[in-house]
Inverse folding.
């Protein structure tokens, strides 16, 4: 039995017969079309254009290039998958997975300033004025509390909005995005509701990138497209922070997970990326003291 096994291995190596390609391990092995995210090792605009044309000719649908993140998103058939397998610049291919909003209803708005270490007495020192924060969530409702208190509460501090979902519009139809934006940038000076609670940075500008629908659901591809847009808009709106209060089940190492890689590449572009963690409690299943369990 052992000799037979060694002979088989030797024959496989001699003939150059490849085993399963680990880069595609998460995909379904079937003829049906599937939504995928492709991560490349490097970016070459001319080669990317040629590759894109080839993939579309083979039947790729909704092909979208995220050059700043070195990724593609598309609906791929078997012919497209086989073409990608022959591409040595393909680092990893994963399914386009569903994501959802993350929140903790046990934390009150009033307690957030003390939790973050930013007391009311410090509010006048750290206001976020001139800083852009990209909120990737369910949209932001444009209320008075997001207006500019330094300009008679007339102009909105939501300086840019774009929708990356199948729904219409950029308004918040789920509520989560406005909740997150309020924690960050609520300005009580422009709000007549008597709440009188400022956010952590009440003068910050908001970049509203809607990635969750009216049910609080979205796809990895939408978040990746929004991250790509945030990197593109960094200079125009002085985007210093990206907030992602959303998530999903981890299926692979962060070293290849497209969503993790997109976050890392946004960070490498010089933007601080804040990501929800710990909403499901402490998990020490990998002996990491409850952290870094995505490794």
């Amino acid at each position: 039995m052992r000799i037979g096994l060694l002979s088989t291995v030797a024959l496989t190596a001699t003939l150059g017969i490849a085993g399963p390609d680990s880069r595609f391990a998460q995909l379904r092995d079937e003829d049906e079309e599937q939504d995928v995210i492709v991560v490349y090792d490097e970016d070459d605009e001319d080669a990317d254009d040629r590759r894109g044309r080839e993939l579309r000719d083979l039947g790729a649908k909704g092909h979208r290039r995220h050059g700043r993140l070195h990724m593609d998103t598309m609906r791929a058939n078997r012919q497209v998958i086989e073409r990608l397998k022959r591409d040595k610049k393909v680092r990893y291919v994963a399914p386009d997975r569903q994501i959802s909003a993350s929140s903790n209803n046990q934390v009150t708005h009033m307690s957030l300033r003390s939790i973050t270490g930013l007391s009311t007495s410090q509010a006048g020192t750290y206001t976020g004025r001139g800083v852009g924060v990209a909120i990737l969530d369910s949209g932001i409702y444009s209320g008075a509390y997001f207006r500019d208190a330094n300009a008679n509460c007339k102009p909105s501090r939501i300086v840019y909005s774009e929708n990356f979902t199948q729904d219409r519009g950029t308004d918040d139809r789920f509520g989560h995005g406005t909740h997150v934006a309020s924690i960050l940038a609520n300005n009580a000076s422009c709000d007549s509701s008597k709440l009188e609670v400022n956010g952590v940075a009440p003068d910050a500008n908001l970049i509203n990138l809607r990635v969750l629908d009216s049910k609080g659901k979205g796809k990895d591809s939408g978040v990746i497209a929004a991250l790509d847009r945030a990197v593109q808009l960094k200079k125009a709106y002085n985007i210093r922070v990206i907030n992602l209060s959303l998530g999903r089940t981890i299926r692979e190492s962060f070293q290849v997970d497209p969503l993790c890689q997109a976050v890392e590449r946004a960070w490498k572009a010089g933007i601080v990326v804040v990501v929800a963690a710990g909403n499901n409690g402490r998990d020490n299943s990998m002996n990491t003291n409850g952290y870094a369990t995505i490794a």
